[in-house]
Amino acid sequence: MRLFGHKMSVLAHIGLAIVVINIALAILAPVIAPYGEAELVGDAFADPAPQYWFGLDQIGRDVLSRMLYGARMSIGLSLVITCLSFTIGIVAGFSAAVLGRWVDIGLSRIVDLLLSMPTLIFAFIILSVLGTDLPVLIATIAILDSTRVFRLSRAVAMNIVVLEFVEAAKLRGEGLWWIIRREVLPNAVPPLVAEFGLRFCFTFLFIAALSFLGLGIQPPYADWGSMVKDLSQVINYGSPAALYPAGAIALLTIGVNFIVDWLLSVYSKGHGEGA
Description:
The protein is mostly helical. It has 10 helices and 2 strands, in the order ββαααααααααα. The chain has a single domain, classed as MetI-like (MetI-like fold, Orthogonal Bundle).
């Protein structure tokens, strides 16, 4: 199988299969889940049975159904946040590279300020003050994550804006958005695509960590991070319930990283040949 015109490796095929299966399960959750997301179906922490394969959680909800609905929230929210952070980071990074001078200095210093603070602690402060509603959670993580995207996109764009075709566009009087959209972005796609996968993994794990600590996605919505927290108390009794959402988090992260590793190897080969 080929992707972006290059033959995929075995690990990339495995990663793509993992990602596709997770996305399909998330989309089809309302159809294939045995029970509703918040439906009570039995006693708390009931053992696995034919009617609920993974057992029940701390208030009697089906763990399998919660995992399927949690995939929608965990994956969907991570994708939205990653897209938003890339939009902010790429626009700011390309603008700094194209405009240069004071715009570059101003944006770079703002990003340096945000990067100087530990991300998790900064998110704790913001979410503790403003609350944990989904819009606040999305905006907070997207802005924090966009700083990494800014640094990469600025570095990539800096190498592109000095090329002749960009200088020619400036001399023709083309505007900022035209240069970014038509000249810089098409030539910066490979590293940005690989970075998108890495940022998605970071966001996915960051949301899971926040939910585990009680500042992420709030009940009654299901997500894998909060499920690990809720089910962790039964590990001492020999129940593997907490391992199901934890394993799902690890498996999806590994799958995305397989694809990212392949994309980076393709980009490195192409960059080396171009040099």
